Please model this.
Amino acid sequence: VQLQACGGGSVQAGGSLRLSCTISGRLFSSDIVGWFRQAPVKEREFVGYIRWGYGTTYYADSVKDRFTISRDKGEKMVYLQMINMKPEDTALYYCATRPSSRDTYGNWGPGTQVTVSS
Model:
């Protein structure tokens, strides 16, 4: 399985952006697709995930109520819709997968840069 995040760009605080994660290969219904981000000189941070089969989602407290993850199983895409963005959302955003039975994500794709200016 290969994943690639795209759709990054520059927005002003309060603005919106939607990232896409393109998936090549097969995902099982039990698999989870997660979004992560890494700001300069900071550790990688979990943003949220979606269960491929059921579509249920989970978010980090820092983005809850502002970010929404969705998926299109037919197109094999996962989306990260971001609204009311803040300068602290500035980071390189990644998507990755893991089986629901494991804690470790893999199949990391190249990140996409998001910059939020105040």
Summary: Residues 47 and 60 are 5 Å apart (CA to CA).
